[in-house]
Amino acid sequence: MNKSSLGAVAATLVLGMACAQAAVGADEAAKLKGELTPTGAEKAGNKAGTIPAWDGGYTKAPAGYKEGEPRPDPYANEKPLLSISAKNMDQHADKLTEGVKALMKKYPSYRIDVYPSHRTAAMPQWAYENTFKNATRCKTKDGGQSIEGCHGGVPFPIPKTGHELMWNHLLAWKGQASTMLFRLFVTTSDGKSTMASDGLAEVQSPYWFKDGSPDKFNGDFHNLMLVTYGPPFKAGESILLRDTINADKGRQAWQYLVGQRRTRKAPTLGYDTPDSVASGAFYFDEAYGFSGSLDRYDWKIIGKKELYVPYNSNRTWLAKAPDLLGPQHLNPDHVRWELHRVWEVEATVAPGKRHAVPKRRYYLDEDTYNMVLSDMWDGQGQIWRVGYTLPMAMPDVPGSVAQTFGLYNLLANTYVLANYPGEKAYQYKQLPPFSDSYFTPENLAAKGSR
């Protein structure tokens, strides 16, 4: 075979690898009906008995509960098993992330209260059935930047690559459509908390439509309509985002500008652009732990480990903002931590790409693939940013849903609490799917001008 023929063969092989990475085989997928949960987690508890076996999750709503009402804390009567701070963190170092340890070192008042672990994760039966189908039909392509053949379930319940785990996070189950009133607070270095945004978020997840299929799905997996009501100087500002599974299309974004009374395309609402909803206190791709396109980073699986992470955070939504917001961090009394197994994924900026954060490490709950914690380093190798989400036990969805999130900036000595619905008329409320015309620039303009 001559050099040109060898080159053609090599190019074909590389192209094939870029086009699609094969799903797992039927024998491996069968584990989802045996030793693994229907979403791919280890069904058994740990050897120490500190992580229980998964028994189907928390699926029964309290008697008389109405959709959108504050969800009670199902474990309100439990007491912490232990508290960890800078004083004793060395005894528990193997179960703490670098970011959590950095917070303890920087703020003597920062601590985590660890409660008994409860595996409340759940999904509807039809979503489990789709997850089983996805195991053998869902594939990555475009070097992991896109996926195909997936719908209505966890895309990669038996993940083999960092890209697959990140797609599991991006497509984590939160229901088909929802609405949520929220506030976003920024606490500055002088210890003062300010409400940066007060508004309404409406979300639709066409990927999770019960009556859908890979053939019917147009690729837009996350549609967000966000309308700001306050503070007064922001009232009327609105954002529309449409995220897709197709790398060649990327995020589609529009912004309604009150002063100009018009909607414009907003291609910069992603990556490391400072998020205007948070007055620039975090980047657009730090929402929900991570959001948007995967193309700026190389993604590598580090492994699975047991860590103390925020979990079953119903008590946080029940707290009043003045009680929850401390001068340097959230009040530990209102944040529940549990021991869970998590996937660890490391992200480093890809060759030829740029990002303000050169290295990130993400921790994904094995039961839900919700990103629960993240560590981020600056160019000098210092821990710079520590991200978190606060998964809620929502038996009516059913599931453990991570809607509230935030970020600690250790160098600026600031922190953010985002998507906090406490004290609002209603909280996270499920809805029937919106019409096809709802998440459009035209409707964005109508909402912003009201």
Automatic annotation (TrEMBL):
Do you know which PROSITE patterns this protein is assigned to? Answer: PROKAR_LIPOPROTEIN
- Do you know which InterPro entries this protein is assigned to? DUF1329
UniProt protein name: DUF1329 domain-containing protein
Q: Which UniProt keywords apply?
A: Signal
On whether ATP-binding is a keyword of this UniProt record, the answer is: no
Q: Which stretch is the leader sequence?
A: 1-22
Keyword Signal assigned: yes
